[in-house]
Each structure stands twice: as C-alpha cells, then as structure tokens.
Amino acid sequence: MTIVCVGNAICDLLASVPSGFVEQEGLTPGSMNLVEDERSKDLQAKVEVSKVDAGGSAANTAFGIASFGGQASFIGRVADDEFGKLYIESLSEANVSYAGGVAPKPESTGTSIILIEAGGQRTMNTNLGAATEFSQADIQAGFLENAKMIYVELYLWDRPSAKEAITYIVNTAKEAGVTVALSLSDVFCIERHSESVLELIKASVDLVFGNVAEWEALLALEPGLTHTSLVDTAWITKGKQGAEVLTKDESVEIPAISVEKVIDSTGAGDQFAAGVLYGAAHGLSLAESGRLGVAAATETISHIGPRPEKPFSEFL
C-alpha cells in the first residue's frame, strides 16, 4: 500500500541568517523564489550553509510517510551529478523508492537555498536545475503499482511539460481508483495559474492541503467558492492555532502542540501532510490523522531541516 509523492527534486541548502537579511536581499519573508544560476551562486556566497538535505516539498512528505513506517515512493527529476546521486541514495536510505528520471550531463540537480531567520521563518530561493524539464518521460513504468494514494505539489504547475506529466499521473490514478491529494504549495503559484488550478482540482483532486493564506488565495479565484464546494476534504494548517479539516459532513479542529521554541519551520507543512496521508491510507479518522500531522509538524519545527530527526512511528 504505497503513497506516491510527485514533485521537484531539490537539494536543500539550509542557512541561518540575521534579522533583516531577507529584506536586504529584496526578498519577501516566507516566500518561495525561483532564481537563476547567477543569483543562486550570489546567495550561497553571502551565507554559511549549515546543512544539505535531499528535499523538495513532496519528497519531504515521502520521507515523513516512511518515517511513520509507511510505504512511499517519489517521482521527480535529478541529474547525473553529485547532488543527484546524493538525492537518490538519501531516498533509498529512508526506505523511499525512486520512480523518477535522471537527466544526463551537463544538466545539474536542482538546489534551494533556504534562509532561516530567528523564530523559524524560512525563505526559499530555488534553482530548479534538472527539475525544470520534468516530463512524462521521467515517470517510470508501473509507478502506480500497489498505490493507495497520489500526492502532488503545485510547485510543478509552473512548466508546460510538468503540467502534462501531472495531468497524466492524476488521470491514470483516477482511472485506477487511487485517491489524489494536492498541496497548494504557494500563494503566488495559485495566482499565476488560477484557472488551470481550479480546473485540476474540480476535475481530479480528492484532498487539498494548504495554509490559511493559500486557501484564501484559492477561494478568491471564483465568487461563492467554498472549501467543500471545491473538494471532498480540505486540510487547513493554521500555525500556532493548529489545523482544521473540512468535509461536506463534518468540521474537525486539530489543536496545536506547544513548543518552547521554533527553530526552523522548513517542511512543517510537508510533514503535516505526511501524517495525514499516512493516517488516511491506514484507515484512521480525520481527527486521528490530523493529530499525526500536527505531531509530525511539531517535531519538524524543533530542529533545522525539513526531515524528521526521530522516527515519526513513535507518535503511533
């Protein structure tokens, strides 16, 4: 019973920065910015990278599912370089199978410089590298074998070839009776692709994950739109206020777990999704699945990096 996660294959370069640094660089705190090679190198020269992780939003979720003891696979596109090899090895070590593509040289694996300010706010500066050309050709045959759910990050929706690949994946999943889940990923991504995002969700998506701002941006795209008129199950993350899940039949509030200090919020939403997806795939109730998600997110914000430092299976 596998949960297949689909997204950008990115190596995360984490760096703590002083207050004000993000604004000085002309960036919006908490945003995700696509940067070219030159800008990426410029930022790397200005910060001290403390940690390198195999990441990307959906891959983080795959790591979390595996940490709960679930079966997970990841579909993306890396390159035949040092970061690409590190990426696939890292997945394997975490018991996540790779069902994506490997681009030939001289392409390079994508990287994301994650600037972490005091209080855990993170600003991502992503050079997609090989992930830019993700297409249907990068999807390995049999990717739906034993699949229970498909989870897709909306970040992929920026490129035409990736749109085609996601449409193929989602349609194939629906035909096979596999549940489709989507992460809204980013407000700006929603606004850039408003019509096609709504079309995708209305036609093919069963569960949607997003924070308050992302949901507000989505619902503002069409007059009278509500969470449950758009999707069967809507998961809303609210930071310190915990989370909420809405269906046509019920609304459940999931309380937050207090922490002494937020070290780094990178990946908190990704790991929330991991807990919810693991719970849903294993027949847990909405409340139980939500509590797993909150527990996973809480563990994640207690340290630097988007991947669990202790097994999420302890929360079971």
List strands and helices in order, with pairings.
Layout: E1 2-6, E2 10-16, H1 21-24, E3 32-34, H2 37-46, E4 51-55, H3 57-67, E5 71-75, E6 77-79, H4 82-93, E7 96-98, E8 101-103, E9 109-116, E10 122-129, E11 147-153, H5 160-175, E12 179-183, H6 187-192, H7 194-204, E13 207-211, H8 212-219, H9 227-230, E14 233-237, E15 243-246, E16 251-254, H10 268-281, H11 286-300
Parallel strand pairs: 1-5, 1-11, 2-9, 3-10, 5-7, 6-8, 11-12, 12-13, 13-14
Antiparallel strand pairs: 2-4, 9-10, 14-15, 15-16
Helix pairs in contact: 3-10, 10-11
Protein architecture, described:
This protein is α/β, with parallel strands linked by helices. The chain has a single domain (2-9, 56-99, 132-315), classed as UDP-N-acetylmuramoyl-L-alanine:D-glutamate ligase, CATH 3.40.1190.20. Helix content is 35%, strand content 25%. It has eleven helices and 16 strands. Strands 7-5-1-11-12-13-14-15-16 form a nine-stranded mixed beta sheet. A five-stranded mixed beta sheet has the order 3-10-9-2-4. A two-stranded parallel sheet has the order 6-8. The protein starts with a strand and ends in a 16-residue tail after the last helix.
